[in-house]
Amino acid sequence: MSDYILETKNLVKEFRGFVAVNNVSLQVERGSIHALIGPNGAGKTTCFNLLTKFLAPTSGKIYFAGKEITREKPAQIARRGIIRSFQISAVFPQLTVLENVRIGLQRATGMSYHFWRSHKVLDRLNDSARALLGQVDLADFADERTVNLPYGRKRALEIATTLAMEPELMLLDEPTQGMGHEDVSRVTQLIKKVSAGRTILMVEHNMNVVSQIADKITVLARGSVLAEGPYQEVSRNAAVMEAYMGT
Ligand code: ADP
Protein backbone atom coordinates (compact mmCIF):
# COMPACT_ATOMS: atom_id res chain seq x y z
CA MET A 1 0.00 0.00 0.00
CA SER A 2 1.29 3.46 -0.89
CA ASP A 3 2.39 5.70 2.01
CA TYR A 4 0.72 8.54 0.19
CA ILE A 5 -3.04 8.52 0.24
CA LEU A 6 -3.10 11.31 -2.31
CA GLU A 7 -0.56 12.25 -4.92
CA THR A 8 -0.65 14.63 -7.81
CA LYS A 9 1.90 14.64 -10.56
CA ASN A 10 2.54 17.82 -12.53
CA LEU A 11 -1.01 19.03 -12.18
CA VAL A 12 -1.79 21.96 -14.46
CA LYS A 13 -4.97 24.02 -14.79
CA GLU A 14 -5.25 26.75 -17.35
CA PHE A 15 -8.15 29.13 -17.75
CA ARG A 16 -8.08 30.45 -21.29
CA GLY A 17 -4.30 30.55 -21.34
CA PHE A 18 -3.92 31.78 -17.74
CA VAL A 19 -2.05 29.18 -15.68
CA ALA A 20 -3.78 29.01 -12.27
CA VAL A 21 -2.11 25.74 -11.20
CA ASN A 22 1.34 25.13 -12.58
CA ASN A 23 2.97 21.69 -12.38
CA VAL A 24 1.84 20.98 -8.85
CA SER A 25 3.06 17.66 -7.45
CA LEU A 26 1.58 17.04 -4.03
CA GLN A 27 2.27 14.12 -1.73
CA VAL A 28 -0.17 13.75 1.13
CA GLU A 29 0.87 11.14 3.66
CA ARG A 30 -1.74 8.73 4.95
CA GLY A 31 -2.95 9.71 8.43
CA SER A 32 -1.45 13.20 8.31
CA ILE A 33 -2.83 16.72 8.52
CA HIS A 34 -1.52 18.52 5.45
CA ALA A 35 -2.04 22.25 4.97
CA LEU A 36 -2.16 24.09 1.69
CA ILE A 37 -1.28 27.73 2.19
CA GLY A 38 -0.39 30.69 0.04
CA PRO A 39 -1.36 34.27 -0.74
CA ASN A 40 -4.64 35.13 -2.46
CA GLY A 41 -4.76 33.90 -6.02
CA ALA A 42 -2.08 31.24 -5.36
CA GLY A 43 -4.26 28.46 -6.78
CA LYS A 44 -5.41 26.74 -3.56
CA THR A 45 -9.11 26.68 -4.39
CA THR A 46 -8.41 25.59 -7.94
CA CYS A 47 -6.32 22.70 -6.55
CA PHE A 48 -9.22 21.63 -4.32
CA ASN A 49 -11.59 21.85 -7.28
CA LEU A 50 -9.26 19.62 -9.30
CA LEU A 51 -9.02 17.07 -6.49
CA THR A 52 -12.80 16.75 -6.14
CA LYS A 53 -13.17 16.79 -9.94
CA PHE A 54 -15.26 19.92 -9.82
CA LEU A 55 -12.75 21.00 -12.49
CA ALA A 56 -10.84 18.85 -14.97
CA PRO A 57 -7.06 19.36 -15.09
CA THR A 58 -5.49 20.66 -18.29
CA SER A 59 -2.74 18.08 -17.73
CA GLY A 60 -1.17 16.03 -14.99
CA LYS A 61 -2.34 13.11 -12.91
CA ILE A 62 -4.06 12.45 -9.59
CA TYR A 63 -3.63 9.26 -7.57
CA PHE A 64 -5.60 8.09 -4.55
CA ALA A 65 -4.14 5.20 -2.55
CA GLY A 66 -1.83 4.47 -5.47
CA LYS A 67 -4.63 4.27 -8.04
CA GLU A 68 -5.02 6.85 -10.77
CA ILE A 69 -8.27 8.76 -10.43
CA THR A 70 -7.62 11.63 -12.85
CA ARG A 71 -10.57 10.77 -15.05
CA GLU A 72 -13.05 9.77 -12.38
CA LYS A 73 -16.30 11.65 -11.84
CA PRO A 74 -17.11 13.56 -8.60
CA ALA A 75 -19.49 10.81 -7.40
CA GLN A 76 -16.80 8.12 -7.89
CA ILE A 77 -14.29 10.28 -6.01
CA ALA A 78 -16.74 10.67 -3.11
CA ARG A 79 -17.37 6.91 -3.05
CA ARG A 80 -13.62 6.38 -2.68
CA GLY A 81 -13.80 8.44 0.51
CA ILE A 82 -12.50 11.81 -0.67
CA ILE A 83 -14.98 14.21 0.91
CA ARG A 84 -14.84 17.98 0.84
CA SER A 85 -16.45 19.72 3.79
CA PHE A 86 -19.92 20.92 3.02
CA GLN A 87 -20.28 24.64 3.12
CA ILE A 88 -22.75 26.22 5.52
CA SER A 89 -25.02 26.85 2.55
CA ALA A 90 -25.41 23.08 2.14
CA VAL A 91 -27.13 22.65 5.51
CA PHE A 92 -30.82 23.38 5.97
CA PRO A 93 -31.13 26.37 8.30
CA GLN A 94 -34.69 25.67 9.44
CA LEU A 95 -33.99 22.05 10.38
CA THR A 96 -32.46 21.07 13.69
CA VAL A 97 -28.79 20.27 14.03
CA LEU A 98 -29.64 16.59 14.52
CA GLU A 99 -31.83 16.52 11.41
CA ASN A 100 -29.04 17.99 9.31
CA VAL A 101 -26.61 15.30 10.39
CA ARG A 102 -29.28 12.67 9.77
CA ILE A 103 -29.63 13.93 6.22
CA GLY A 104 -25.83 13.63 5.87
CA LEU A 105 -26.07 10.02 7.01
CA GLN A 106 -28.94 9.36 4.65
CA ARG A 107 -26.90 10.79 1.79
CA ALA A 108 -23.91 8.69 2.78
CA THR A 109 -25.86 5.46 2.68
CA GLY A 110 -27.95 6.43 -0.33
CA MET A 111 -30.98 5.48 1.78
CA SER A 112 -34.29 6.66 0.40
CA TYR A 113 -36.50 8.83 2.62
CA HIS A 114 -39.36 6.35 2.87
CA PHE A 115 -37.15 4.12 5.04
CA TRP A 116 -37.40 6.78 7.69
CA ARG A 117 -41.01 5.85 8.29
CA SER A 118 -39.68 2.81 10.08
CA HIS A 119 -39.13 3.78 13.71
CA LYS A 120 -36.30 1.31 14.03
CA VAL A 121 -34.37 2.87 11.15
CA LEU A 122 -35.09 6.36 12.41
CA ASP A 123 -33.90 5.46 15.92
CA ARG A 124 -30.72 4.00 14.51
CA LEU A 125 -30.07 7.06 12.37
CA ASN A 126 -30.73 9.34 15.33
CA ASP A 127 -28.29 7.36 17.47
CA SER A 128 -25.59 7.60 14.80
CA ALA A 129 -26.29 11.31 14.32
CA ARG A 130 -26.05 11.92 18.07
CA ALA A 131 -22.75 10.02 18.19
CA LEU A 132 -21.36 12.24 15.41
CA LEU A 133 -22.58 15.36 17.19
CA GLY A 134 -20.81 14.12 20.32
CA GLN A 135 -17.57 13.86 18.35
CA VAL A 136 -17.75 17.54 17.38
CA ASP A 137 -18.98 18.69 20.81
CA LEU A 138 -22.43 19.62 19.52
CA ALA A 139 -24.48 17.13 21.55
CA ASP A 140 -26.05 19.96 23.58
CA PHE A 141 -27.18 21.68 20.38
CA ALA A 142 -28.88 18.64 18.80
CA ASP A 143 -32.42 20.02 18.98
CA GLU A 144 -31.56 23.64 18.15
CA ARG A 145 -32.61 25.00 14.82
CA THR A 146 -29.46 25.28 12.72
CA VAL A 147 -30.19 28.92 11.89
CA ASN A 148 -29.78 29.77 15.59
CA LEU A 149 -26.31 28.22 15.95
CA PRO A 150 -23.38 30.57 16.54
CA TYR A 151 -21.06 30.75 13.50
CA GLY A 152 -18.26 28.65 15.01
CA ARG A 153 -20.73 25.90 15.89
CA LYS A 154 -22.09 25.93 12.34
CA ARG A 155 -18.61 25.18 11.07
CA ALA A 156 -18.42 22.29 13.55
CA LEU A 157 -21.75 21.04 12.16
CA GLU A 158 -20.22 21.21 8.69
CA ILE A 159 -17.46 18.89 9.95
CA ALA A 160 -20.07 16.53 11.48
CA THR A 161 -22.00 16.28 8.19
CA THR A 162 -18.71 15.57 6.43
CA LEU A 163 -17.89 12.83 8.96
CA ALA A 164 -21.27 11.28 8.19
CA MET A 165 -19.91 10.53 4.72
CA GLU A 166 -17.16 8.40 6.32
CA PRO A 167 -14.26 10.24 4.69
CA GLU A 168 -10.88 8.62 4.36
CA LEU A 169 -9.49 11.91 3.09
CA MET A 170 -11.23 15.05 4.33
CA LEU A 171 -10.74 18.26 2.41
CA LEU A 172 -11.36 21.29 4.61
CA ASP A 173 -11.65 24.67 2.98
CA GLU A 174 -10.57 27.41 5.39
CA PRO A 175 -12.26 25.80 8.40
CA THR A 176 -11.49 28.70 10.78
CA GLN A 177 -12.22 31.56 8.41
CA GLY A 178 -14.09 34.48 9.98
CA MET A 179 -13.94 33.08 13.52
CA GLY A 180 -13.07 34.73 16.79
CA HIS A 181 -10.17 33.51 18.89
CA GLU A 182 -12.20 31.09 21.02
CA ASP A 183 -13.91 29.40 18.06
CA VAL A 184 -10.58 29.15 16.23
CA SER A 185 -9.00 27.23 19.07
CA ARG A 186 -12.07 25.02 19.49
CA VAL A 187 -12.19 24.13 15.78
CA THR A 188 -8.41 23.62 15.71
CA GLN A 189 -8.68 21.05 18.50
CA LEU A 190 -11.68 19.51 16.77
CA ILE A 191 -9.75 19.01 13.53
CA LYS A 192 -6.93 17.39 15.49
CA LYS A 193 -9.44 15.09 17.17
CA VAL A 194 -11.28 14.01 14.01
CA SER A 195 -7.98 13.46 12.18
CA ALA A 196 -7.54 10.21 14.14
CA GLY A 197 -7.73 7.35 11.65
CA ARG A 198 -8.08 9.58 8.60
CA THR A 199 -6.17 12.09 6.51
CA ILE A 200 -6.92 15.79 6.32
CA LEU A 201 -5.92 18.20 3.59
CA MET A 202 -6.84 21.75 4.48
CA VAL A 203 -6.60 25.20 3.00
CA GLU A 204 -5.93 27.49 5.95
CA HIS A 205 -4.85 31.11 6.26
CA ASN A 206 -4.34 31.20 9.99
CA MET A 207 -0.65 30.43 10.59
CA ASN A 208 -1.27 29.83 14.26
CA VAL A 209 -3.67 27.00 13.37
CA VAL A 210 -1.27 25.59 10.79
CA SER A 211 1.68 25.70 13.19
CA GLN A 212 -0.32 23.82 15.82
CA ILE A 213 -1.77 20.94 13.81
CA ALA A 214 -0.24 20.57 10.34
CA ASP A 215 2.30 17.77 9.93
CA LYS A 216 3.29 19.10 6.54
CA ILE A 217 2.69 22.35 4.68
CA THR A 218 2.72 23.03 0.98
CA VAL A 219 3.10 26.68 0.09
CA LEU A 220 1.67 27.75 -3.25
CA ALA A 221 2.37 31.07 -4.94
CA ARG A 222 1.16 32.05 -8.41
CA GLY A 223 0.10 28.49 -9.08
CA SER A 224 3.43 26.83 -8.25
CA VAL A 225 4.80 25.05 -5.19
CA LEU A 226 7.13 27.48 -3.47
CA ALA A 227 8.12 25.39 -0.48
CA GLU A 228 7.13 22.25 1.35
CA GLY A 229 7.82 20.75 4.75
CA PRO A 230 6.98 21.04 8.43
CA TYR A 231 6.01 24.47 9.79
CA GLN A 232 9.42 25.12 11.39
CA GLU A 233 11.12 24.77 8.03
CA VAL A 234 8.61 26.49 5.83
CA SER A 235 8.17 29.48 8.13
CA ARG A 236 11.89 30.25 7.88
CA ASN A 237 12.00 29.96 4.11
CA ALA A 238 13.03 33.28 2.54
CA ALA A 239 10.93 32.80 -0.62
CA VAL A 240 7.85 32.09 1.50
CA MET A 241 8.40 35.20 3.60
CA GLU A 242 8.77 37.29 0.47
CA ALA A 243 5.60 35.85 -1.11
CA TYR A 244 3.62 36.77 2.00
CA MET A 245 5.19 40.21 2.42
CA GLY A 246 4.50 40.97 -1.22
CA THR A 247 0.70 40.69 -0.86
P1 ADP B 1 -6.63 30.93 -4.07
O1 ADP B 1 -7.67 29.96 -3.66
O2 ADP B 1 -5.24 30.50 -3.70
O3 ADP B 1 -6.91 32.34 -3.62
P2 ADP B 1 -7.66 30.45 -6.74
O4 ADP B 1 -7.42 29.01 -6.98
O5 ADP B 1 -9.03 30.88 -6.37
O6 ADP B 1 -6.60 31.00 -5.68
O7 ADP B 1 -7.26 31.27 -8.05
C1 ADP B 1 -5.99 31.15 -8.68
C2 ADP B 1 -5.99 32.06 -9.91
O8 ADP B 1 -6.82 31.50 -10.91
C3 ADP B 1 -6.50 33.46 -9.64
O9 ADP B 1 -5.70 34.38 -10.36
C4 ADP B 1 -7.90 33.41 -10.17
O10 ADP B 1 -8.31 34.70 -10.63
C5 ADP B 1 -7.80 32.43 -11.32
N1 ADP B 1 -9.05 31.70 -11.55
C6 ADP B 1 -9.66 30.88 -10.67
N2 ADP B 1 -10.78 30.34 -11.20
C7 ADP B 1 -10.88 30.87 -12.47
C8 ADP B 1 -11.83 30.72 -13.54
N3 ADP B 1 -12.87 29.91 -13.44
N4 ADP B 1 -11.59 31.41 -14.68
C9 ADP B 1 -10.50 32.21 -14.80
N5 ADP B 1 -9.58 32.39 -13.84
C10 ADP B 1 -9.76 31.74 -12.69
Q: What can be said about this structure in brief?
A:
With 247 residues, the chain is α/β, with parallel strands linked by helices. It has nine helices and eleven strands.
Can you describe what's shown?
The structure is a single chain. The protein has nine helices and eleven strands. It is of the alpha/beta class and 247 residues long. It has two domains: 1-81 and 167-247, P-loop containing nucleotide triphosphate hydrolases (Rossmann fold); 89-166, no CATH class. The strands form two sheets. A six-stranded mixed beta sheet has the order 7-8-9-4-10-11, sandwiched between helices. Helix 3 packs across helix 4 and helix 3 (97-109) packs parallel to helix 5. The mean pLDDT is 91. The structure holds adenosine-5'-diphosphate. Pfam families: ABC_tran, BCA_ABC_TP_C. InterPro entries: AAA+_ATPase, ABC_AA/LPS_Transport, ABC_transporter-like_ATP-bd, BCA_ABC_TP_C, P-loop_NTPase. Residues 6-247 form the ABC transporter domain. One of its GO terms (cellular component) is plasma membrane.
